[in-house]
Amino acid sequence: MVVLLVLYLAIVCLSLASAGVGNQYALHAAAGTFLMVGFVPLFLRARFSFGYLVGFSFYGMMAGFIWITYFSGLSYDHAQARISAIASLLTFLLPVLFITAPLQRRIAVSPQTMDRLTILMLAFAAVILVWNVRYGIALVGIGEAGTLRATFIRPALLNYVTGSVIGALLPFAFAYFALRRRYLLAAISIVLIVSFYPALLNKTVLLAAVWLPFLFLVFQIFEPRRAVVLALLLPSAFGLVLYHIAPNAGPVRFLAEHAFGLANVRMLAIPSLAMNYYSDFFAGNPSTYFCQINLVRSFVDCPYAGQLGPIFEARYHAGNLNASLFATEGIASVGPLWAPISTFLGGLILSVGNRVSARLPPPLIATSAGLVMQALLNVPLSVAVLSNGLLALLLLWYVTPEMSDQDA
Known about the structure:
Layout: H1 2-18, H2 26-33, H3 40-45, H4 50-69, H5 78-98, H6 111-133, H7 142-149, H8 156-179, H9 183-195, H10 197-200, H11 203-221, H12 224-245, H13 251-281, H14 294-297, H15 308-316, H16 326-356, H17 362-368, H18 370-378, H19 381-387, H20 390-399
Helix pairs in contact: 1-4, 1-12, 2-4, 4-5, 4-12, 4-13, 5-16, 6-8, 6-9, 8-9, 8-11, 8-17, 8-18, 8-20, 9-11, 11-12, 11-17, 12-13, 13-16
Protein name: Oligosaccharide repeat unit polymerase
Transmembrane segments: 27-44, 51-71, 83-105, 117-137, 157-176, 183-199, 205-222, 227-246, 337-354, 375-399
Keywords: Membrane, Signal, Transmembrane, Transmembrane helix
């Protein structure tokens, strides 16, 4: 387990170096980044939980950010940013790893009722798919999807519901039916997720077709904590090796570039790079004090007229850059000095997921949280709760009857 945890740090550093973040000072950066091994005892001591999965994902993100600070040409205090990042990760991990006591359930649902409810969720997802299709579809590749996506304008309510369907209901349905060995219904869950692509033009729904079955398989085979590490280590190691051994042209190079771009750049590098941009921007601009949250904005004056994503796109030309709670509820909202307090509160909130899922088998927890986990790395916690299905997933876990792999 220790070897896997340290190996993952090496993969993070090599992925960023291969993506162009590195120079002759790479040895210095590697030494600084490998100070993150100080967190290994926490992962060795903690039991598996939803928070373990999320915490390890953020561990990799923070390791990537620390690596980036040694090469960043942006003019913020890099040493202060590193110290704040390490402190923020520590205060986040303490509650999210170790608050795991089961929450007493006041709503009891029988297995038969849960089966029917999950089938109804598939029907509901189909209705939401049809509703989305009414606002337009496009049968285009991933390259053209980003340009066309903004042309499909949908009601805010539909966006919220769709986010919960894709982020929570369908991943849960897949995991639940797969664990119950009802493989046809599990396959229908995956097909429904992928069917949203022409309407949403979102790569996440295509990723789900591979990512969710992969998570389920890994957690069925390996001990849960080891499965967490392998679930992130194996795709990134595969993408890194294939990227370096593939020929310069041809279908293998095409596959290598897409695998590396997804597993190593999108899932590893971009969340870390977002923290780099947020650290720079808020080193010279006022903090938001959470006014990026629409509810807070309605009560207080905000120094920023719109959402942060377009502001960052205009300044850094890096796309509509959303970022995790460490960047938004942390650096952006209260600055690097107070960010560890904000991330501690974020850890407390996410530890609720540990408590409502404590009686469920690890394959169900990890697989149903597969897309929510990716969302947490890339959007604020306040956005993930409603727009990406986190709240819906917690409610599903809360009402799911106690079950085990053997029961399934």
